[in-house]
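2024-03-11 09:14:02 DEBUG pipeline.ingest accepted 1 chain
2024-03-11 09:14:02 DEBUG pipeline.ingest length=373
2024-03-11 09:14:03 DEBUG pipeline.predict start
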Amino acid sequence: MDTQHPAILVVGGSLAGLTFALASASRGVPVRVVERAERRTLGGDNLNVDLAAIARTVICDPRTGAKLPVVRAFRDRHLTTWPALYGWLRDRAGTMPGITLDENRAVASVRAEGDRAIVAFEDGMEASANAVIGADGYHSIVRRAVAPEQPLASYAGYLVWRGLVDESALSVPVAWPTDGGLWITLQQGYRLVAAVLPGRDGSREIGQRQVTFAWFDGRRDDLLRRTGCLDAGGHVIGTLTAAAISAEVREELSALVPRLWPEPWAEAVALGVRTPGAMRGAPIAEYRPVRLVAGPLAIIGDAAHGVSPMTGSGYATAVDDAFVLATTLAQRDTAEPLKRYERARLPYTRGLVDHSRRLSAEFNHYVAGWFGR
């Protein structure tokens, strides 16, 4: 790699890609971020975030100035929504010197040619770089080149119905304090995680907040296969968008709500299930990396390690990846910065996936105990 004037291309402009771009540019390493959409949109996810770790990584404090809307979760962790965090990162990346955002640009493939990385776009064009960083999620194109023998993430055995609804749409506000953290329960073979989050405008006022839920469901394997979310080998290759959830499935889930979930969450879950666009189904993908680097190619975030949301470490681990890789790249007198990143991060990420698999096995055992599978 040319350590004096490296050309770094990032595939994927979602949370991990933007975090890494900000971490790099703030340390004097320019990057070009290629993203297939102009501005990504996604709803329904709550994220627990370490604000101090984000500030250290991107060298911009989400607790000051244009603050990231959060509520307290536990210890030094806070909760926010996916759209709020994405918007905070994207706004800063859009004005940060050293970051070029190349949006509405789809990547078809990535390959290494000697010490150069080549990105082929779906429009037939190609680009060459000193390094390509894959931040393109659980179905990563870059990972196919980094680990061709293990390119896909495995299905953990359950999906999560994720919903996000406005508190103002409920008959009464949720009787849960803004700094109340997560509510978690197991009921009759299912698991629910719920919380109140800042409103779409960042408001923390009762009645103006948002309510999020994650409903863990271990009885949807057939549905996921029918809808093309799983392949024959048990790998996750798609997700259930809101439009792909049939009226029949929504009716079935709606009937379960009063049997499973108590107030103050039952009305919010029922509204999320019934409302088009308010809920999606995410089959949980786990990926234990064999490597993080191959020549001039590297992977970070969900492209590098897929874990269950029960770990509470998905985005947090991407932040750590970004910090280590950006810091290493900034040390331009250091040989093989990508390999140094891999040596630092691979043992931890493999251990985290092992932990995720244990949590998934425990949940699947619980589901089997209820339904006799």
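2024-03-11 09:14:41 DEBUG pipeline.report The two ends are 52 Å apart (CA to CA).
2024-03-11 09:14:41 DEBUG pipeline.predict end
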